UniProtKB/TrEMBL annotation:
It comes from Bradyrhizobium nitroreducens. This is Cation transporter. Residues 28-251 form the Cation efflux protein transmembrane domain. GO terms for molecular function: zinc ion transmembrane transporter activity. It is found in: Membrane.
Length: 326
């Protein structure tokens, strides 16, 4: 009886996204597709003496490395899901990979800007037909990759509340939340990072085709490097956004201010007052909340936890109750 009772109050810390396995498979497919494209371009460039193919091939290699980071992060998070060394599970590994990918993306932006400035200062002859064919091929591969990584918004579906040493009778009515209405969701930053990588490559391909067409018809050879500079600014802005969103998760920035207000409103009933509230993301679609309640007539922690029933995404809830001395 006693062992059964203990098991009733224990819980795991599996805070992976709802589509974790599916997203992992998609990412590996894109890695394979990118590597095949990379090898094909390098081999073709070597056989036919095409610098455009060689350059784009090695450029694809950079994206393959970044996508590989995303894929390995999915695999690591899944394989170490039950590892007790990770206090709140492995849900944040995707954000760590996204942060690393964003840094790589920023370096790519710097590289493109540097090469564009060099070409503006020292224009080089361009074989327009070949360059446009390479850009079109790259665009096709990236559009296929983007299709595989589509729907990057990972909606959570777990609404189980957990508390250390407290009753677990607050699992009712978790499928509906009239205050929050299921609108509280978190993106899978790891999948988003992979998606941004292929979209930046697709965007640069589109810009390259447009710039080459202008240069070929008008003779404005500066159009190609000028558009390259524009592309580098766009890529840098996307990288910054990815750094900001993934870094916020890694640094436990407040996960959702609206959800926090809803929690506070539900907890402060009668003489109960929230004196401390921490809400942070522990995985895609999973939040942990730690709060302290002070009251003239405190109730059992389970009573307070039941007030949060129905709030989706609260996967780990801890409530501390204090008695007001006055």
């Amino acid at each position: 009886m006693h062992s059964h009772s203990i098991e009733q109050w224990t819980h795991d810390h599996a805070f992976l996204g709802e589509k974790h396995d599916e997203n992992e498979r998609r990412t590996w497919l894109v890695v394979v597709l990118t590597l095949v494209m990379m090898v094909g371009e390098i081999v073709a460039g070597s056989l036919f003496g095409s610098m455009a193919l060689l350059a784009d091939g090695w450029h694809m290699g950079t994206h393959a490395a970044a996508l590989g980071i995303a894929a390995f992060a999915y695999r690591f998070a899944r394989r170490h899901l039950g590892n007790a060394h990770f206090t709140f599970g492995t849900g944040k590994f995707g954000d760590l990979a996204a942060f690393a990918s964003a840094i790589i993306l920023g370096l790519i932006a710097v590289e493109i800007a540097y090469e564009s400035v060099l070409r503006l200062m020292n224009p080089v002859p361009i074989v327009y037909g070949e360059a446009m064919a390479v850009a079109a091929l790259g665009l096709a591969v990236n559009l296929a990759s983007a299709w595989l990584l589509r729907d990057s918004h990972d909606h959570h579906h777990h609404g189980h509340d957990h508390g250390h040493g407290h009753a677990h009778d607050d699992h009712d009515d978790h499928d509906h939340d009239h205050d929050h209405d299921g609108r509280h969701h978190h993106h899978d930053n790891n999948l988003r990072a992979a998606y941004v990588h292929v979209m930046t490559d697709a965007a640069t391909s589109v810009l390259a085709i447009a710039a080459l067409a202008v240069a070929m018809t008008s003779g404005w050879v500066w159009a190609d490097p000028a558009v390259g500079l524009i592309g580098s600014v766009v890529i840098a802005s996307w990288a910054f956004g990815l750094v900001k969103s993934s870094g916020a998760v890694l640094l436990d920035v407040r996960a959702d201010e609206k959800l926090e207000r809803v929690i506070r409103a539900r907890m402060e009933a009668g003489d109960d007052r929230v004196t401390d509230l921490h809400l942070w993301q522990v995985g895609p679609g999973h939040c942990a909340v730690l709060l302290s309640v002070v009251s003239d007539k405190p109730k059992p922690p389970a009573v307070y936890k039941r007030r949060l029933a129905g709030l989706k995404g609260l996967s780990h809830v801890t409530v501390e109750v204090e008695t007001c001395p006055h």
